[in-house]
Amino acid sequence: MILWASAVREYLHVGRDRDRRLGGAAGIIGSLLGAVALLGSGVFAARATCTAARTTAEAQRAAAEAAAEPNQRAEDRVAFEAIKTELRQELTAARDEVRSLRSLVRSLALYVDDLTGVMRRHRNDPPPPPPRVEECNRTGV
Question: With the C-alpha atoms ordered 83, 87, 89, 90, is the resulting torsion angle positive or negative?
């Protein structure tokens, strides 16, 4: 019986050493798993932070565009008015020039008509007018 008792004690003693070794290994494995989990959660948090920063930047850009739109429209109106004023001035100048040229052409036509009359009174035949002048004399245009 003593043998049996010492065998049981020895078995229990060996079991405790084995449990101590397994407990230490389990602690190390647990620590490693905790570190990996911490690293994984850090990566997840970093990705979430980057996504949130991108979303915030896009929202701020959209808000800035929306806030700038009324100012941009006012600037566009001012530029449009400036362009419109410039075009009106150019159109007025072009119309004035056309009136002046028409008046000059009429004066020259009357002068040439007078010269043609003088030539005919002195029995000189004037040269025939160019085709465009002939057409204008016929049609009035």
Answer: positive
pLDDT tens digits for range 41-95? 777 777 778 787 888 888 888 877 777 777 778 888 999 999 999 999 999 999 9
Q: What is the DSSP string of 121-137?
A: HTT-PPPPPPHHHHHHH
CA 126, CA 51: separation in Å to the nearest integer? 92
* 129/136 Cα distance (integer angstroms): 10
Residue 76 pLDDT: 87
Higher pLDDT, 33 or 52: 52
Single out the residue of 27, 8, 31, 9 nearest to residue 19, CA to CA: 27
Sign of CA dihedral 117, 99, 129, 133: negative
Which regions of 1-141 does DSSP assign to beta strands (E)?
none
Q: Which two tokens stand for residue 67?
A: 């806030």
Which strand (E) or helix (H) includes residue 127?
Answer: none
pLDDT, position 111: 92
SS3 141: coil
CB 126 within 8 A of CB 116: yes
